[in-house]
Amino acid sequence: MSRERRLIVLGSHNKGKLRELRAALGSLPIALRGLDACPEARAPEETGEAFAENARLKARELARQLGEWVLADDSGLCVDALGGRPGVRSARYAGPGATDGQKIGRLLGELSNVEEPKRGAAFVCTLALASPEGVLLEVRGACRGRILRQPRGRNGFGYDPVFFCPDLGATFAEVSIEAKSQVSHRGRALRALARGLAGLLERESAMEQHYVGIDLGGTNIKGGVVARSGRVLCFTSIETQGEKGRDHVLDRMGRLVGKVRRAAKLSPKQIAGVGIGSPGPLNIAKGIIHSAPNLPGWENLPLAAEIQRRCGCPVVIENDANAASLAEAIAGAGKGQNCMIMLTLGTGIGGGIVLGGRVWHGADDIAAELGHVSICYDGARCNCGVQGCVEAYASAPATVRRAREAIAAGGKSVLARKGDKLTCEDVFKAARRGDWLAQKVVADTIKFLAVAIGSLINVFNPDMIVLFGGMTKAGDQLFAPLRREVAMRCFGIGAKRCKIVGSELGEHAGVIGAAFAAMQHFEEAK
Model pTM? Predict the structure, then answer.
């Protein structure tokens, strides 16, 4: 069982600061990322007259841009005899691009006539943590000392060689980084941050409404606790064990709800509802699953009522592909897009359509069966019984089938050695290695997908199409030619707008989306 971490972005490109932060906050349930991982971010100009002002400014603005929690800092040296200078201008004290030696030289020059008792100084650091809504936490650290007349020591940087710390009996440049961090302004600020952040995370967890998401599959059942923000507090997966009967699986699902709640350290009252992403045609309003091909005996089952009886929480159901699509639209690759379509590429081809943050279900909850978009009016018969569905041409099994047919027709390929063990992944690998037959099969798979996607773009004019599933592991081998093919098969304006990308949430998508479906249902019902 895994426990997801709150993402915090450090408002700096400094890798040393990122390592320092990870060491100081390593015991907390957070994940840290530097600005290097956020190329879209633009740090604001530091115009404040105080460290706290600049730290708040950077944290607030970057949090607004990124939609994430951001930690920013400002620090510097304040010399008593200089009225607190260089202060917030410490890094630019000797001019833009000045070396540490030039900064120290200017400082010692200004203090040349200042007597020892009046050479007091303090390093000061302020750390500010902000969300897109505003500042969440602010801490300060300071270290008093005095400025020497000559530099001492070879460690450290900036003004360290001339700053004598009484607690160390040495300059910062004469001791190890570890010793310095115990008394330095930044070390003290980081320890205060760790204490404050621990309390903040505890309060956030206690105050937030939480939902349990269950992703029901024929092989595995995945479950997790999801906060309103989309943060996953915990996640786990268990075997479905469908061969042991319907009631056995329902019991396992009911117990899984309690298991993930306890793992998230939440009381029953903190769970506002449960969402289940389920296969098969559904009646969402009545909570009924009409059938599930991989779960024998699941005909016209009141799934929502059965799980509610077992776990004691209100339950809503959603199509599993729709749930994953909703997750990607709200918290994944499609975040911020008004119209997003997702295609799942695997044993079959499924999908979901999310408009304005809501799944489009259609009149009978069967909308977005995107694998059954017809690309050939008299083509191959699909498992659904209809001819010409894109699933019959571009799914993983269909790709394998076409490769086998080409080999049976006399085509030469290394794939012939695989026999009955041939997989779609094998076909893509052989194509990358130059196998002509495999390259032709992959190219055709991409063209078949492009025909369907081009039609979807012409109908929906989406901002984004997200591809999900095992086939997307091929990366640019799939995406680059697919984008080119799609551009030739739909209106140019639509092709230019629509970004075709891979999913971001991976195996968590179904759980997050099921929880979001419950969240939307129960909050709208209030």
Answer: 0.64
